[in-house]
Design goal:
Helix content: 25-40%
Strand order of the largest sheet: 1-2-13-9-8-5-6
Shape: globular
Structural class: alpha+beta
Largest sheet: 7 strands, antiparallel
Radius of gyration: 27 Å
Strand content: 25-35%
Number of helices: 10
Distance between the termini: 48 Å
Length: about 425
């Protein structure tokens, strides 16, 4: 195995006096480059286990922290030093095993913070974070997420800001230069630090007009069909304008992952005629895909087990959605080709917007988890009572007062089955 050459570049981008005498606006950038060199054999590669960098930072007791979550569903508010995220601390292990709640965050691959670390004020996030003191922001951000997620750990107890690259298993080819970390630090107003970060990434303000439109999800969820979509399309004539978006969400496919297999019971004529109607109305057409996973009932899951990510010999379970979600292995070229083929299939119909979902999944807080479980139980209870009474009525099993004999025992049996999963 080859050794690694490390090169750390530090460049102060800007340091100027602000309008107020008390504040100084400053930016710095730290770049860590790794190159494979040396070794016993010519052309031998180097493998990475971890890459990290740690800096000193003087935290104060009145600091307010924000750290970007693992993905877009992660609850990420500002927090004081004493506040912390305890999303999974009260989740029963049996419930987590059945429903995979911990799979909705980074718990499957990142060690959770200990109680001692949480009480000490340690904060964990990804890609960017800030410490706020009144109107002054201290921004810590990554410019190299294309080479792996950057995990940020702000530790006020030990006065450190630590940055870790998610690069386990990454192999650096002989002679290759790997951008391990590219960190951007800034101090100033909120507008100043974010403008500086965006400028460092080469991101410019958008000049296009914001897009307005309709999505079927918040009106129909998965209960969509040719009839409901056309009904909603007609209703949008009173609201939307030419050039606006009409987007078909989850529910058109037979099973999640089988993107080329439209549910012909819901859409007997397929999706293409509906897309044509959308375009004929003068709207842009959009569609929903979740290309990073598939569900257990899908043909993809049955027919291509080699397309799935595996951990300890088992497919990686991503959570309770649908019939159970499983992660796809994007290092497999066949998986990438399948996703490209699926996108091209709908692009050829005239679809120009793709809503790509489940790049990662949410974290559930304790009260959210309790609410979810209670909701499931109430739905199950009313569904059971309705089924029992309806069936007993048609079978003439009700007494003269309309009551069902031994109903308590039947409900108890169903309750036991519900708790068992």
């Amino acid at each position: 195995m080859r050794s690694l050459k490390m090169e750390l570049l530090n460049k102060t981008v800007r340091s100027t006096q602000a309008l107020t005498e008390q504040e100084t606006v400053s930016e710095s950038r730290y770049t860590l480059l790794l190159t494979a060199e040396g070794g016993q054999k010519q052309g031998e590669d180097a493998g990475l286990t971890s890459v990290s960098a740690q800096f000193h930072f003087d935290f104060r007791s009145d600091d307010v922290f924000f750290l970007n979550g693992y993905q877009s569903w992660t609850y990420s508010p500002e927090r004081t030093r004493e506040q912390f995220d305890g999303s999974m601390r009260h989740c029963p292990k049996l419930a987590d095993k059945i429903y995979g709640f911990s799979r909705y965050a980074d718990a499957a691959f990142a060690p959770p913070l200990s109680k001692k670390e949480l009480k000490g004020g340690l904060k964990k996030g990804y890609t960017y974070a800030y410490v706020r003191r009144g109107s002054t922001f201290f921004l810590f951000a990554s410019l190299a997420e294309h080479t792996g997620f950057t995990r940020i750990l702000l530790d006020p107890e030990h006065s450190t800001a630590r940055f870790e690259k998610d690069c386990t298993g990454r192999v650096i080819q002989a002679g290759e230069e790997y951008l391990a970390l590219d960190l951007y630090f800034a101090q100033g107003t909120e507008q100043e630090v974010y403008d500086g970060w965006f400028a460092a990434m080469g991101i410019h303000p958008r000049t296009t007009v914001p897009l307005s439109g309709y999505t079927s999800w918040y009106n129909r969820y998965q209960a969509i069909s040719q009839e409901t979509i056309l009904t909603d399309l007609k209703g949008c004539q009173k609201i939307l304008e030419p050039g606006d978006l009409f987007q078909i969400d989850d529910g058109f496919e037979r099973f999640v992952g089988d993107w080329l297999d439209v549910d012909d019971k819901k859409f007997p004529n397929g999706i293409e005629p509906i897309v044509k109607r959308i375009l004929d109305e003068g709207y842009q057409a959009g569609i929903w895909l979740a290309p990073f996973l598939c569900e257990k009932n899908s043909a993809l899951f049955r027919e291509h087990p080699d397309w799935l990510q595996h951990q300890n010999g088992e497919p990686v379970f991503t959570g309770l959605n649908w019939s159970g979600g499983y992660a796809l292995d994007f290092y497999n070229p066949e998986v990438r080709n399948y996703v490209i083929r699926s996108v091209e299939h709908y692009k050829a119909m005239g679809i120009t917007l793709f809503k790509l979902d489940f790049a990662g999944i949410m974290q559930l807080g304790f009260f959210t988890l309790v609410t979810l479980i209670i909701t499931f139980c109430i739905i199950d209870m009313f569904d059971t009572i309705g089924t029992l009474v309806g069936t007993a009525s048609r079978a003439n099993m009700l007494d003269k007062d309309g009551n069902m004999p031994n109903m308590k025992e039947a409900l108890l049996s169903d309750a036991v089955g519900t708790l068992a999963g």
